[in-house]
Amino acid sequence: MAANRSQTMFQAVQTVWSRGGVKGFYQGLIPWAWIEASTKGAVLLFTASEIESATTAVGVNPAVAGLLGGMGGGIVQAYATMGFCTCMKTAEITRHKQAASGIKPPSTWAVFADIYRREGLAGINKGVNAVAVRQCTNWGSRMGFARFAESSIRKLKGKGPDEKLTALEKITASSIGGALATWNQPIEVVRVEMQSMAKSAERGEKKTILNTLSYIYKENGLKGLYRGVTPRIGLGIWQTVCMVSLADYVKAWVKGR
Fold first, then answer.
1. N or C, which end of the chain has less CB nearby within 10 Å?
2. Which residue has the higher pLDDT, 93 or 224?
3. Average pLDDT in the 180-203 region?
């Protein structure tokens, strides 16, 4: 929906389904999403945990520590692994627009090789700065809001700062954090547009965050900058539950060993 901003949710589902049924919903899974998923979580958890632990140790508020940890972890994972992975996933999905003009879309490896040959590392990391801004605000917001929600739940339940929350309470806090963090959807829409394989004179050859933002606003208005926010709320909740609530249990288990 971020790439096809004129479509409704139902139309977007129909479009994806037309690209191979169920398989259409897994475009870009192999190998790009596998590479991304197997590396970005580790990078985020390690970096965010170190920053969060260091800041809380010097008396920083848990919500602010979560914000700083998420921001740091998001930036590191963007530049370490996510830049080229998100670029290639987006290329894999948007290259099917070429079929509309009668051109047979090349294979994913052919796309990768062509981009690398023409533009080098900068080409396969196209839009990485937008990814870094997205991940910084994503995980800063998710972890910050989640920790703030945890503190609020403790106050409501009359629990002390060192008392453990129940699994349901932690999941609730993470769900709140994941949902509220989608305020940055315009950055995601900009990222998708910057990495899109679609070409036009209006889009221009050299895409920056600002000129892409301006192009989307001119074409689709403010509403266009929030296209796709509904499914992203679901994704944000799921990812925050996994990377905050579940991660806390994993960290506690590792520390206990």
1. C
2. 224
3. 79
Give the pLDDT score at 170. Answer: 96
Q: How many CA atoms lie within 13 A of 170 on its CB side?
A: 15
Query: 170 near 247, Cβ under 8 Å?
Result: no
Residues 6+ apart with CB under 8 A from 230: 9
CA pair distance 52, 75, nearest whole angstrom: 15
pTM: 0.74
CA atoms within 13 A of residue 96's CA, in its CB half-sphere: 15
Residue 58 has pLDDT above 90, yes or no: yes
pLDDT in tens, 101-114: 566 766 767 777 87
Note whether 226 and 189 are within 8 A (CB). yes
Residue whose tokens read 């080098």: 120
The residue with tokens 């679609």 is 198
Report which residue type is found at 88. M
DSSP tag of 106? P
Six-digit token pair at 95?
Answer: 């290259």
Rg (CA), the chain: 20
